[in-house]
Amino acid sequence: MSQTDSRLRCAVVGTGYLGRFHAEKYAALADCELVAVVDVDPEAAQAVAGKHGTRALTDYRSLLGQVDAVSVVVPTRLHHAVARDFLAAGAHVLVEKPITVTLEEADELIELARRHDRRLMVGHLERFNAALLGLDLVQEKPLFIESHRLAPFNPRANDVSVVLDLMIHDIDIILDLVDSEVERIDAKGVTVLTADTDIANARLTFRNGCVANVTASRASLKVERKMRMFMPNRYLSVDFQNRVLAQHRKGEREMFPGVPEILSEESVFENGDALMEEIRHFVACIRAGRDPLVSGVAGRRALATAIEITRLLRA
């Protein structure tokens, strides 16, 4: 099938909370055909399939060789096996974050995608948040970053620690923004509601001198997803939850003798649909034959840092 003038045959494996939305986005795209959704729970699969007029399956292996692209939205421990089988069968794969459980599994997926010339993308959804996309860091790189990602407890994600569930979003963004090797990591965490870490803080020191202080909690009473970046001449604040980008910079006048004025501006992105933008980007990369914004390599990089933070927490 030509991927430039025909609809892509797409499928979603896993119809849980997030998988349902993946199916909705593919069904809404004119250049994609949602050929099937898959879930081990036949009722869950049928509920999503019926809504979008597609097939409901319980075994993803019956789709191997039958689709051009697939979203893998299953529990993390299954990411490797499902993504591996589809890549080996010649499909492009969007796998939810974290890419896999281990770095060895991630390496195998990256190599399979390279060998078969398939696009492998990792679903770090915040990369497509409209407020983050509004950033311009071409001229200045951050010297200090502080991020807070707080959420009430959700049993849906208790198969991984708070680092792999929540913090990894900010780890991925920070590694991309700083674009320098991590030289040192310090981490502390506590268990509150589960047997694993529920609140964690990590301090990343980069070779270029930047320092990032990253906090994540899944035992909070409120939702907060904010990142603050400090540069020599300005300070940026990204509110992922409300899609607000605030910029504060030094002006030419003085507010006090010898102290420059601070000029502030705020941009609110009211109609952002990060998941739709993510899937549109995935489809565009397939058609253009280019690497996605969050490639398998980027997903592995975030996973490696998250694994090291987890090791330090458990030590």
Characteristic key phrases:
six-stranded parallel beta sheet; 2 domains; alpha/beta; about 325 residues; Rossmann fold; eight-stranded mixed beta sheet; Dihydrodipicolinate Reductase, domain 2
Describe the structure in brief.
With 315 residues, this protein is an alpha/beta fold. It is built from eight helices and 14 strands.
How many strands in all? 14
Element-level helix/strand string:
EHEHEEHEHEHEHEEEEEEEHH
Instruction: State the fourth-level CATH superfamily of the largest domain.
Output: Dihydrodipicolinate Reductase, domain 2
Helix count equals 8
Shape: globular
Query: What is the average per-residue confidence, as pLDDT, rounded to a whole number?
Result: 93
- By CATH reckoning, the class of the largest domain would read Alpha Beta
CATH architecture of the largest domain: 2-Layer Sandwich
Into which percent range does the helicity of residues fall?
A: 25-40%
Strand content: 25-35%
Widest beta sheet: strand line-up: 8-9-10-7-11-12-13-14
How would a textbook summarize the main sheet? Answer: 8 strands, mixed
Task: Enumerate the spans where pLDDT stays under 50 for 5 or more consecutive residues.
Answer: none
Cα separation of the termini = 51 Å
| Domain module tally | 2
Radius of gyration: 21 Å
What is the CATH topology of the largest domain?
Dihydrodipicolinate Reductase, domain 2
Overall structural class, as computed from helix and strand content, comes to alpha/beta
